[in-house]
Amino acid sequence: MLISELATPALVADSATIDRNVATMAAARPGRALRPHVKAHKCTALAGVQAAAGHTTFTCATPREVVGMAAAGLGDDLLLANETVDPLRLRAMAQLDIPVTVAVDSEATVTAAAAAGISRCLIDVNVGLPRCGVAPGEAGRLADVARRAGLNVRGVMGYEGHLMMVADREQRRDQVDESMALLVRAHADVGGDIVSAGGTGTFDLHDGNGVTEVQAGSYALMDTHYGSLGLPFEQALYVVGTVISVGEGFAVADVGLKALGMDHGNPSVEHGKVWFCSDEHVTFTPDATLTVGDRVRVIPAHVDPTMAMHDSLWLMRDDEVVDRWPIDLRGW
Amino acid sequence: MLISELATPALVADSATIDRNVATMAAARPGRALRPHVKAHKCTALAGVQAAAGHTTFTCATPREVVGMAAAGLGDDLLLANETVDPLRLRAMAQLDIPVTVAVDSEATVTAAAAAGISRCLIDVNVGLPRCGVAPGEAGRLADVARRAGLNVRGVMGYEGHLMMVADREQRRDQVDESMALLVRAHADVGGDIVSAGGTGTFDLHDGNGVTEVQAGSYALMDTHYGSLGLPFEQALYVVGTVISVGEGFAVADVGLKALGMDHGNPSVEHGKVWFCSDEHVTFTPDATLTVGDRVRVIPAHVDPTMAMHDSLWLMRDDEVVDRWPIDLRGW
User: Fold this and answer.
1) Which of A200, A313, B108, B264 has its CA 20 to 30 A from that of A191?
2) How buried is B8 (Cβ within 10 angstroms: 0-12 exposed, 13-18 middle, 19+ buried)?
3) DSSP state of A75
């Protein structure tokens, strides 16, 4: 099948570009130095490409992602890098064949994990992003609580998400160093082998700072948001649309905000300038003459929620569709 | 089951509030004076409530919505208020037992519809929103083209989407009148019985202006965006979350931007003030002391894309879950 034969809107990724992005990252952070974050794609087939590149540990944001990865037999060490107190979901994760580690940042999350039979945790440390994570000075105390509850405390994690988009690389490095100093001090109090941090925007700023593994996900597919940072990863993902209307000075394609993560703003259109998105439309100025029925490529501003809005990712090589990957880790 | 027993994030709607919203609209625009837009909820069970209130005509934004409504046996007159040139999807709609009308705004869309066996259309007229729609002065000519192609031209439609959020009601009315004057003039050239327009924000501004039916959808569930207009519809929809972390001056719940339409900005939290959303988190200042495990209600800024992100809507009466409605019209 050719791309031009796909019903639209169609989520499409360039197979060779994914392979290059995954290889570039695997060279920079081989094996367990990267714990690929599957929340960015929610797709076990793509996680399989990351596994084939040598990564055997994975990061998840939801219990559903953990359970789905285990069902697909991917990885030998799955981390839920997030807090949950849901007893049913914790129990489901505890019963998997693949060892699961969960993040904890409070006595309540420790208690819930232990009660459900979870046996491994990381102490989640607040390194500057006001989200989850215990205050750095409290990490050691919480590790003691976790050990008393019977958990194996494998180390710490801290996500410097507030620094991913610092535009200047040197400034980004300095701020990451400050942030990671908090994590490393917490690690001294906590113990364990793991210091887990980072994301695509800071993947190459963790050498020699004590971080043992980076949790990056977006690098495999990329989006316009990360694209502005000059990272060594190329745009692989877009949504193919069909021009359904042409007005005076603008065209309209059938790729709307129900097909695009919009929290980072409007998408881009190849060979055009976006005006706005509606539920099922993008209105844009085309660089050249377009007619109804022409295909356009729309590039999402944020890859993670875009993936979660589609049930399939079409893989292409040149203009040919070579595979369909179910986006099988959606939901919670 | 109680709401407090639902796994989170959970999309929940108050059953009595839906009933009141639907009754209020049915009183203002009874029967065929309203063509409820199912894109707002993508849920045949909710469309069934609208049908029970006396509406037998429905508006859809995607072929999937049309096909799903027909499969559920809902309505006697379905409108795809959108353009498509997809031959397979047009053919699927043409073969349904329920009569389907499609919007056309170009010779290409007319030709595609006729070739696929579609027999009814509305001429989509640009009434000021730069999206789909033929220029008003071209509508009569396009109607002639459609009739020559064998289509039954039932009238016109025009969506004044750019006016939905004009804050002052009188100003909104004046601008709607100007916009609808364009549609009525086009209708004089086109002919047919239908002049279709409007949405929730302008549902009560179409009396005596020539519009025969209003395409409103959001009114049944509502969101914070429309909530700012002082309409006679109440908030029925929210996403229930669990507090998973409490920091200094803020709390974090497990309702993130993958569970919320974000194109109209951040959601609101009952009894709190939202700071920001991440993929799986909302960080907010709580009005009172919250502890890990507490439940919170998050109110989406935009109902339509929020519905499309969930597979089920839980119906509640007081604190009890009384039904689960599949969101079965998702996708394209």
Assistant:
1) A200
2) buried
3) -
- Chain B residue with CA closest to A85: the answer is B293
Of B130, B257, B259, which has the smallest distance from its Cβ to A250's Cβ? Answer: B130
| CATH topology for the A3-12+232-326 domain | Lyase, Ornithine Decarboxylase; Chain A, domain 1 (2.40.37)
Cα separation, A126 vs A130, in Å, equals: 7
Please name which of B219, B223, B210, B158 lies closest in space to residue B184, comparing C-alpha atoms: B210
The values of phi and psi at residue B119, to 5°, are -120, -5
Q: Rounded distance, CA A202 to CA A200, Å?
A: 6
Mean pLDDT of chain A: 97
Q: How many of the other CB atoms lie within 10 Å of CB of B271? A: 11
Per residue in B194-245, pLDDT (tens digit) is: 999 999 999 999 999 999 999 999 999 999 999 999 999 999 999 999 999 9
Task: Give CA torsion, residues A45, A48, A50, A56, to 10 deg.
Answer: 140
Chain A contact for B200, CB < 8 A? no
ipTM of the complex: 0.96
Decide if B7 and A82 are in contact by the 8 Å CB cutoff. no
What is the predicted pLDDT for the residue at B61?
Answer: 98
> What number does CATH give the domain B15-222?
3.20.20.10
Within 8 A of B106 by CB-CB distance, chain A residues are: 245-246, 292
Min Cα–Cα distance to chain A from B293, Å? 7
The contacts of residue A138 (CB under 8 Å, 6+ apart) are none
Query: Cβ contact (<8 Å) for B280 and A39?
Result: yes
Helix (H), strand (E) at residue A124:
strand A120-124
Query: Is there a contact between B277 and A291 if contact means CB atoms under 8 Å apart?
Result: no
> Which residue ranges of chain B lie beneath pLDDT 70?
none
Closest-CA residue of chain B to A10: B332
**pLDDT at res. A250:** 97
Interface probe with B: pick from A1, A157, A223, A263, most Cβ of B within 10 Å: A263
The ranges of chain A annotated as CATH 3.20.20.10 are 15-220
Is any Cβ of chain B less than 8 angstroms from the Cβ of A5? no
Average pLDDT, stretch A178-183? 97
Q: What is the pLDDT of residues A102-145, one digit of tens each?
A: 999 999 999 999 999 999 999 999 999 999 999 999 999 999 99
Residue range(s) of every CATH 2.40.37.20 domain in chain A: 3-12+232-326
Beta bridge partners of B52: none
Amino acid at B32: R
Residue contact B131–A245, C-beta within 8 A = yes
Q: Which residue on chain A is closest to B60 by alpha carbon?
A: A280
- Tell me if A292 and B85 make a contact (CB, 8 A cut-off): yes
> What are the start and end residues of each CATH 3.20.20.10 domain in chain B?
15-222
Minimal Cβ distance to B292: which of A85, A279, A332: A85
Predicted confidence at residue A99, as pLDDT, reads 97
Question: Looking at residue B82, what is its pLDDT?
Answer: 98
CATH superfamily, with its number, for domain A15-220: Alanine racemase (3.20.20.10)
Cα separation, A119 vs B173, whole angstroms: 63
**Over residues A215-226, mean pLDDT:** 95
Tokens of B5: 């027993």
Measured in angstroms, the CA of A131 and the nearest CA of chain B are apart by: 6
Q: Do B281 and A8 touch (CB under 8 A)?
A: no
Q: What is the pLDDT of residue A27?
A: 98
Which residues, other chains included, contact B303 with Cβ-Cβ below 8 Å and sequence gap of 6+? B40, B41, B218, B221, B222, B223, B226, B237, B261
| Shortest CA distance from B304: residue in chain A | A279
